[in-house]
Write a structure and sequence with these properties.
It is built from 28 helices and 6 strands. It is a multi-pass membrane protein.
């Protein structure tokens, strides 16, 4: 018997678990706002060079000519001929261009840079970091640098908070992360300069990583085995709905400072009620705090309406259930232990590729909404809405087909859609937008799957370190995704080829991950090795997993949980990445 049996004794998935999951999931409504905030905070309004001070529109108001016509005398058209150039103006006003039968050769007219700054259109955005700090033309790369710096913070947070939570507990680090994001997020809304804003966004990204990683682990470690799939998928809908909330808030406010403040201030509310959370009893036991773990289990039993369990569940009973785990907890673990043994190494290598490619493709699609020729607010709403059917589909797949098949299928299908978009002509904008939405939906479903899958694959003693390790690659993917868009200057289809190829590679690696459907969470590295290592003996019954339940074979991406002999198990797992 193990911790899963103790959970059933104190009520299984009862009243406490419902409250616990709901309260931890609520901040997810604003996590989407943090990750996708740069689409609106640093949106690029239509703009052109400001007119010379001695030729302002106010001084020329006595001419009976429309404003748009006046501007053409000062600003040339861009290479497409459909809009004003954003970075050049004529050295001298070209009044002849206002004549109806004008035949001037505009290519011979002298131009110069925007010496008097820029004029920004405020019909779509009232104020953004781009318009406030003039991050256009030669400074345009600084606009994307904000997102890269933020994702760098998320990367640093995954590394730092992953290790800290395994040492100090999920609850403590989660509470601190709420406070850090509330303070630093609101501070970024008051940033006096570009540099200060980047610093605040980096530190906010660290806090976001702490909230997401510790929230996932704290939920998973209090949920019985059978309910993990349902809870994991339904929790992800908070993030999906948050994308639609972001679109509504951005459309309503249209000012980057107000939007930044509104999406960060609620963190103080989450911080205030997070003190009610119960620390993971699994973590407490494995960190030699059995008395605290017992108090936590008693509290959960009372909330779940099982007061009679309080007298029955003693320290001796707890220790007898988790004796093996307690013995293993005497060792300390580092990131090296994720690669030290065969099964852990196989899992970690495969998850690194899956996390990188999922994030790479996801943010490649989600962080460039202005290219679709549709209102950015509508596009964000559509991208959020498409996640609902995608994640419902993922829920069905996770429940009936298993984690491995679901993960591989989502990656392969998203790759096919991304490749298909290469062959759609650029003038068929609606079709390209539809395919982009479908691709985004499947990459979102892949995210849902990999978060749940990772929490089930890594053992409790090193789960947060593992989550931090593999999600590090996701942050690198999210940092690299926008940079790949520059490749369209070399060959227009090249970014899509890179995104799609990465998803295909990850789908192949996902096929080598072990199945975890209806299998209790592993608590120690030994549990992982016994279940999924080539040289392991059959898992023992008292650990909650039999050979019949724990064995699965992946052939062509299809999972099977049929009974096999130990010999067949060794033959099946002795190939491919298992040999690592």
């Amino acid at each position: 018997m193990g911790f899963a049996d103790l959970l059933e004794e104190v009520g299984g998935f009862g009243r406490y678990q419902w409250l616990h999951v709901t309260l931890i999931s609520l901040p997810g409504l604003l996590m989407a706002s943090q990750n996708l905030l740069n689409n609106f905070v640093s949106g690029i309004p239509a703009h052109y060079c400001s007119l010379p001070t001695n030729h302002s529109l106010h001084n020329l108001s006595h001419y009976q000519v429309e404003e748009k016509q006046f501007i053409k005398a000062f600003i040339p058209m861009d290479s497409s001929g459909t809009r004003l150039d954003r970075c050049k103006r004529y050295v001298e006003p070209q009044w002849q261009l206002l004549l109806p039968n004008n035949t001037a050769n505009v290519s011979e007219l002298q131009t110069e840079g925007c010496l008097d700054g820029w004029t920004f259109d405020d019909s779509e955005f009232l104020a953004t970091t781009v318009s406030e700090w003039e991050l256009v033309c030669s400074l345009r790369p600084l606009k994307q640098m904000i997102q890269t710096i933020y994702m760098g913070g998320v990367l640093a947070g995954a590394i730092i908070f992953g290790g800290l939570s395994d040492r100090f507990g999920r609850r403590s680090v989660l509470i601190w992360s709420y406070l850090q994001l509330g303070i630093l997020g609101c501070s970024s809304a008051l940033s006096p300069s570009y540099s200060a804003y980047c610093v605040f966004r980096f530190l906010s990204g660290m806090a976001v990583s702490g909230i997401i990683l510790n929230g996932v682990s704290l939920k998973v470690e209090w949920i019985p085995t059978k309910e993990r799939t349902l809870v994991g998928t339904l929790s992800s809908f908070f993030f999906t709905f948050g994308q639609m909330i972001l679109a509504g808030l951005a459309y309503w406010l249209r000012d980057w400072r107000k939007l930044q403040l509104v999406v960060c201030a609620p963190m103080f509310l989450f911080f205030s009620y997070s003190w009610w959370y119960v620390e993971s009893a699994r973590w407490l036991v494995l960190n030699r705090q059995s008395e605290e773990a017992l108090k936590s289990l008693h509290r959960v039993a009372r909330i779940n309406g099982k007061p009679e369990v309080v007298d029955k569940l003693t320290l001796e009973v707890l220790q007898s259930h988790m004796n093996k785990e307690i013995e293993s907890s005497r060792s300390t673990y580092t990131a090296y232990d994720l690669l030290k043994t065969r099964a852990m190494r196989r899992i970690s290598i495969c998850l690194v590729v899956v996390w990188f490619s999922t994030s790479f493709a996801y943010y490649g699609l989600a962080m460039d909404l202005q290219k679709f020729g549709v209102s950015i607010y509508q596009m964000q709403m559509i991208f959020g809405a498409v996640d609902f059917p995608a994640k419902l589909m993922a829920l069905g797949m996770l429940t009936y087909l298993g984690r491995r098949v679901s993960q591989a299928t989502c990656l392969f299908v998203s790759a096919v859609i991304i490749f298909a978009n290469i062959f759609v002509p650029t003038d068929m904008q609606t079709m390209r937008t539809v395919l982009a939405c479908l691709g985004k939906g499947f990459t979102s479903a892949s995210f849902t799957t990999v978060y749940l899958y990772t929490g089930e694959l890594y053992p409790t003693v090193i789960r947060q370190t593992g989550m931090g390790f593999v999600s590090t690659m996701a942050r690198i993917g999210s940092m690299a995704a926008p940079a790949v868009l520059i490749l369209d200057e070399v060959f227009p289809a090249l970014p899509s080829m890179v995104y799609g190829g990465s998803a295909v590679l990850a789908g192949c690696f996902a096929c080598f991950l072990p199945e975890t459907l209806n299998i209790p969470l592993p608590d120690t590295i030994e549990d992982v090795e016994e279940r999924w290592s080539v040289t392991s003996p059959a898992p023992r019954k008292e650990e909650g997993v039999s050979l019949k339940e724990g064995v699965d074979i992946c052939v062509g991406g299809v999972a099977s949980t049929e009974d096999v002999t130990l010999k067949e198990l060794k033959e099946a797992e002795g190939t491919g990445l298992n040999a690592l």
